[in-house]
Amino acid sequence: MRTSILAIWAAIALWPCDNWGLTLYRIGGPPPTQMEGVDIVHLAWEEAVAGFDGRTEGLLFEGGQATPILVTADDNLALTAKDRGGGSKSARFGVGGFLETENEVTAGIADGDSMTVFKNTDSEHVGARVVLILDLGGRFSVNRVRFFPSPQFPLRFIEQFILTAYDDDRDEVIVSETDNRSSTVDLLFPPQAADRLVLSMAFRQRDWEVAEFEAYGEGYVLEGFYQTQIFDLGGPATVGDLRWSGFKERDARVKIRTRNGTAADPNRYWRFTGRGDEQTFRDEAGQPLTRAAYDKLKGNKAGITTDLDHWNPWSGTYDFADSTGTPITAPNARQYLQFQILLLPKSFQGAGLNFVEFTTSQPPITDQVVAEIWPVEAEPGQATPFTYAFKPLIVPDNSGFDQLVLQTSGRFVGIDSVHVNGDGVDWTADLAHKRLALSLPRMDATDSQKLIEVFFRAQVFHFGTTFAGQVFDSERPLEVGQQVQGGDATFALDSNQVWTGIRLRGRLVSEVRTQPSVVTPNGDGINDEVGVEYSLLELVGTGQVAVDIFDLAGRLVRSLYRGHQRSGRHVHLWDGHSDDGSAVAPGTYLYQVRVDTDKAREEHTGAISVAY
Predict the structure, then answer these.
(1) Is residue 324 over pLDDT 90?
(2) Do the beta carbons of residue 313 and residue 326 sit within 8 Å?
(3) What is the CATH number of domain 509-610?
(4) C-alpha to C-alpha distance for 58 and 102, rounded to whole angstroms
(5) Comparing C-alpha atoms, which of 114, 169, 168 is closest to residue 146?
(6) Is the pLDDT of residue 168 over 70?
(7) Strand 231-248 relative to strand 326-327: parallel, antiparallel, unpaired?
């Protein structure tokens, strides 16, 4: 369902507490499937950007999809610049270089009509100059510029000019001409990144005019930018996973970021006080400057920054491969949320998004949960005892929780005990290699700030292994969990973080073994395959791995694996057959695990027995 944005915000503001629950927000794409017990808010891409602090540049919205603008060599960017928020303007500088006029709209030079012109007939201002500015309304790769007078006056061409391409605060002079004799100036040059083109011309003792100022390029816009308006969730809310659907060709990139806060405006507005370089974000009455008040300031605007007292900074970029669901970086239960998306194509390799969606729960489970882990360094690949200590801040409006879920890129081995304020408590656990789900005694507002400690054993394989936590309320099984953030949970542990490093000893591989040690590939379902297992350690990124089976003469019998792998535990199965598919003869064979990185190579070998 698609509703006007004003109606949606009005509905949110009027939701009564007894109707709070799970809400699914989707931006773009088709409407989500209606689910029992789930409120759905569906916004078009254009709607979600229409309110305060929302803006977009360089994107098209068609068929529910957001994609970067694609131009061909014949597309005059000037004709569509106004549709993208750009357009043409001029500025005049008097003799001596002082600014006489600026930001004069000159629509006639970018309208496709050669009879509407911008002209100079003021021959008294010899030595002065005029500047024509073409704002492209986005960042494009420009390789051609044309400008010319009207067909009525072909001799009113410009003799002297400078063409400059601007890309944000960077500028590049494309052409500097002092003696032009062509009525139509048609400039071809290597592709140049530009969001504005500036044509600077001297006033000469002759009349001149510009009928059209054209710009051309080829390929995708260099950057498609999208920033939603501020989402008002109607009150503090627990924010769940972020999901999206889209595409990304090989060299293109997609960057999605989020932030959340407790105030409707994420910005802090600064002004100069008039006392030297002193700045303040307060007005004369001592109140924080609003956007409206800031816009009314004349020459004493000092800039806009993020209000970090009420808003988290922008998150890191979410991995595009995690499109099926990744936790939103929103550590506290807050009322306001905002998204920022960058689509970065490369020449003719594009990217696009069909939709972005997220879920929220109200009332929130907690106001905040902080945690830390100890030790902060472990032997790679070895089962290490860890303490995960966390402390919730639970206010009366929160629902509380009775479950903790930990996830890691390492490997959980076992759980030993759980303590609340130092006392052992009953618990149950569902333990998988990379996930630990722990059921706890229920924690509500009367348990706020109690210290909960989980003692478990796990293996870590690379530096920076994170134990990401969420707390859940089992009485609200459809709703989302509250993220745990790293912080100071207890003075007894001195880490303030939920990730651990490893003791670097230069090893790449550990715990190499086969299971079982004898393979009997006779089809009876017992020991028909043998697994070659190993742990990769200390890899930054990936390593090139080869797992092979050889006979005792050193001849290659079977290549089990060739490819890149990351740090962690891996296993490859051998069924007692050679590369050509035939069963090998009984006897002893050798396996080899070889890892190559940019800096080192490591090999491990062992024996496998084959019997029938």
Answers:
(1) no
(2) no
(3) 2.60.40.4070
(4) 26
(5) 114
(6) yes
(7) antiparallel
Q: What share of the chain is helix, strand, coil (3-state, %, to 5)?
A: 5, 50, 40
CA dihedral 33, 35, 38, 42 (to 10 degrees): 10
pLDDT band at 459 (very low <50, low <70, confident <90, very high): very high
Average pLDDT, the chain: 88
Cβ(266)–Cβ(306) under 8 Å? yes
Side by side, the strands of the sheet bearing 530-536 are: 509-515, 530-536, 568-574
Q: Which of 123-132, 270-279, 592-601 has the lowest mean pLDDT?
A: 123-132
For tokens 């059921």, the residue is 439
Tell me if domain 5-61+226-266+307-361 and domain 368-502 are identical in fold: no
- Which residues face 217 on adjacent strands? 142
The span from the CA of 584 to the CA of 374, in Å, is 49
Tell me the pLDDT tens digit for each residue of 412-421: 999 999 999 9
User: Closest by alpha carbon to 377, among 559, 500, 219?
Assistant: 500
In angstroms, the CA 395 to CA 258 distance is 25
Answer whether 469's CB lies under 8 Å from 327's CB: no
Q: Is the separation of the CB atoms in 510 and 535 below 8 Å?
A: yes
pLDDT at position 227 is: 98
Residue with tokens 């797992």: 547
Q: Tally Cβ neighbours within 10 Å of residue 292.
A: 8
Pick the CATH number of 368-502 from 2.30.42.10, 2.60.40.420, 2.60.40.740, 2.60.120.10: 2.60.40.740
Which CATH superfamily does the domain covering 73-217 fall into? Galactose-binding domain-like (2.60.120.260)
Residues contacting residue 244 through CB under 8 Å, at least 6 positions apart: 256, 323, 353, 354, 355, 356, 357
Residue 127, C-beta contacts closer than 8 angstroms, at least 6 positions apart: 95, 202, 203
Q: Which three-class secondary structure state does DSSP give residue 295?
A: helix
Hunting for tokens 């409707």 — which residue is that?
264
Residue 127 pLDDT: 55
CA distances to 47, 50, 235 from 56, rounded to whole Å, are: 11, 9, 27
Domain extents for the chain?
5-61+226-266+307-361, 73-217, 368-502, 509-610
Q: Contact, 174 vs 186, CB < 8 A?
A: no
475/368 Cα distance (integer angstroms)? 19
| CA distance linking residue 231 with residue 357, whole number of Å | 13
Residue 203 clears pLDDT 80, i.e. is over it: no
Residue 203 to residues 97, 119, 207, 505, Cα–Cα distance (Å): 12, 11, 9, 72
Question: What is the DSSP annotation of 211-266?
Answer: SEEEEEE-EE-SBEEEE---EEEEEEEEEEEEEEEEEE-TT-EEEEEEEEESSS--
- Measured CA distances, 97 to 55, 101, 128 (Å): 35, 12, 7
| Mean pLDDT of the region 581-598 | 87
71-74 own/partner pairs: CB under 8 Å, 24+ apart: 71/140, 71/216, 71/217, 71/218, 71/219, 71/220, 71/221, 72/218, 73/144, 73/216, 73/217, 73/218, 74/216
What's the topology of domain 5-61+226-266+307-361?
Answer: Jelly Rolls (2.60.120)
